[in-house]
Design a protein that fits this description.
By secondary structure, this protein is of the alpha+beta class. Helices cover 22% and strands 43% of the residues.
Amino acid sequence: MGDQTRPQPVTGYAAGPANQNGYPPPSSGTAYPYAAPPPAAYNYNYYNNNNPYYQQPDAYAVQRATFLRRVLAIFIACFVIAGAVIFIVWLILRPRLPEVRADSLSLSSFNLSDNFLSGNWDFQFTARNPNKKMTIDYDDIQALIYYDSKQLAETSVAPFFQDKRNETASNATFAATRTFVDNRVVEGIKKETPNIEFDVLMLARVKFKAGSWRARSRFLRVYCGELKVGLVQNRSSGNLLGGPRQCVVRL
């Protein structure tokens, strides 16, 4: 037989590197002759209008929410502005608490018998306004006298007004008539006699004012502690020992 030519395999792609399956990748010009079109925009309005579970927003609810947001924003802005104004006024005025000094404490007609205590106290004090630009008005002043945290008597003090950098002297008079005290107080007084230590507490409502600006009323607390009275004349009367001393002032 004569020579026969072996048929050659027909190929439609240029030879290239084989992929992981052993086949060459298709050429870009043969496999995908046209560029892919861009995806169409999604019509949300069409979906919402044809969705039976979709509800259009209530116009009144939207307006109400907008109104509430505006009110809240205005409230926050007013709060910030008011705080800034108060802070600026405080920086300008620099308000300071008054200073109180215990000048004297006298005791008379003092008697302690069978857990019943009697006596009269006269407490003299001086209040000073250290502010250069503010006046102070004192009102509803209550004073109490104690022995070892036991209240013995209370009284009211006349209200008064203080100008800038002014000092005002005042007094509180206490009276106790057969006030019952427990054994702890009796034993303490007998142990300390003739030098008995008392404490005076004063509470007052004060107002600070500078020109047309007036602060709201505040409650002032004045504590004058360790006021030691030395008894004389059959131990029924006495006066403050150690001279005047400063009291503690708090709001």
